[in-house]
Write a structure and sequence with these properties.
0% of the residues are buried. By secondary structure, the chain is mostly helical. It has one domain. The chain is rod-shaped, with a radius of gyration of 18 Å.
Length: 49
């Protein structure tokens, strides 16, 4: 039983790390794309609203 609980803990930690990394990556990618293509991002925001 100790192995399964350890495995579950490791998997939970991995999922948490991946989700944190993914949200950070999306945020950074948004900042980069806005700084590189400000007109495109403004146009997309106008369409969304």
């Amino acid at each position: 039983m100790a192995d399964s609980s350890r495995y579950r803990t490791i998997m939970t930690g991995l999922v948490t790390l991946i989700s944190l990394y993914h949200s950070t990556y999306v945020y950074v990618a948004n900042c980069i794309s806005i700084s590189l293509f400000p007109d495109v991002c403004k146009g997309l925001q106008m369409e969304r609203n």
